[in-house]
Specification:
The protein is built from 14 helices and 12 strands. The protein is an alpha/beta fold and 353 residues long.
Length: 353
């Protein structure tokens, strides 16, 4: 099949068809409409699925950019072979290990597309991802995002869990098109990176915080604070893999994230949503710092206006006591109380129903 084309709402010509056809190769613009950024590290089997899904996009004027932050010769050899076999694939390797946020940033800066998506190397885009999102783009749009399915380590889709995630992150109340309150939407954590197209120039201008392992909300919050336009597509256009090897499975770097997020301004209507996001994040950040013995940093975060002080929550009371008790004693008591709580939770889980 030869190349076909149409124009989206922003007037951009979009090609789809057989990427190997002579017409497609001759018609492909120097700047592709979309760069699909796939940062990777060590999961070749998942990477193969991610690249294959990207190659199946109905929009063909795309770039598939594999950004390697690992030391696997197997990944390097496979990616270079994929690059030779498909002109849309481009492989780059970091000269030194950058970590998740740094690799995301390197991938974004190397992207050539007008739009980009940063997906996990364990996630998969559905074939109509780019085409469907580009159809709702306007000249003022900065971020286009959709719903996504949840899949397990084996790639099995859970329809029930997917619907639960849609409701949990408040996307079930969003209509197609312009999001009326972008700040509230972002602070509700409604915008999934792996199911979003972002204007490349905006992503490159703001950049990614290199020391975060879940940096997307910080980028989206800064965009919303600038008044950027977000557009939503209710269709499910990607698959997010939830499994034990995910980058954030061992916890977010919450103690770093809160310090980036707190100063970002929000309009009055978005303050409640920001507080709803920040309170559990601060609670987790203080817990991480106390467990690592960093009492002074924990005290600093507990002074935040978003920290959820309580006289009835046992965990928050334990944190308050840990920083008020004599140095060392409070931390040891906190760790002991935490171990007792975790043991009790495991016992209840084993003996329930």
């Amino acid at each position: 099949m030869g190349a076909l084309s149409r124009r989206n709402a922003a007037g951009r010509r979009i090609l789809w068809g057989d990427p190997r056809s002579a017409e497609m190769l001759a018609s492909r613009p120097m700047t592709p409409v979309v760069t699909i950024c796939i940062p990777t590290h060590f999961r070749l089997n998942y990477l193969k699925e991610a690249v294959s899904a990207a190659q199946a996009q109905t929009v063909q004027d795309i770039e598939i950019l594999i950004s390697d932050d690992g030391q696997s010769e197997e990944i390097k050899n496979w990616a270079e072979s994929a690059e030779r076999a498909d002109l849309r694939v481009r492989y780059r390797k970091n000269q030194k290990k950058l970590g998740m946020g740094g690799n995301w940033n390197a991938c974004i800066m190397a992207a050539r597309g007008e739009w980009l998506v940063v997906q996990g190397d364990d996630d998969r885009l559905l074939p109509s991802f780019c085409e469907t999102l580009l159809q709702i783009a306007s000249p003022e749009s900065t971020v286009l995002f959709s719903n996504h399915y949840v899949i397990d380590a084996n790639g099995t889709r859970s329809e029930e869990e997917s619907r639960e995630w849609t409701a949990r992150y408040h996307r079930d109340v969003l209509s197609r098109g312009k999001v009326p309150d972008a700040a509230r939407c972002v602070w509700n954590n409604s915008v999934p990176m792996t199911a979003s197209l972002i204007r490349s120039n905006a992503a490159k201008r703001l950049g990614i915080k290199a020391d975060l392992n879940s940096p997307e909300i910080e980028l989206f919050a800064r965009l919303a604070a600038e008044g950027a336009r977000f557009d939503h597509e209710p269709a499910y256009l990607a698959e997010f893999r939830s499994h034990a090897q995910s980058a954030s499975a061992n916890g977010l770097f919450s103690e770093r994230l809160v310090q980036y997020l707190e100063p970002i301004p929000v309009p009055a209507g978005g303050e409640a949503a920001k507080r709803g996001f920040m309170e559990p994040l601060l609670r987790d950040a203080v817990d991480r710092l106390l467990r690592s013995g960093e009492r002074d940093r924990a005290i600093e975060l507990m002074r935040s206006r978003y920290y959820p002080h309580s006289f009835t929550d046992p965990a928050l009371l334990a944190q308050a006591l840990a920083v008020r008790a004599p140095l060392g004693l409070g931390i040891h008591a906190y760790l002991l109380a935490r171990r007792v709580h975790e043991a009790r939770s495991r016992w209840l889980s084993r003996h329930s129903s």
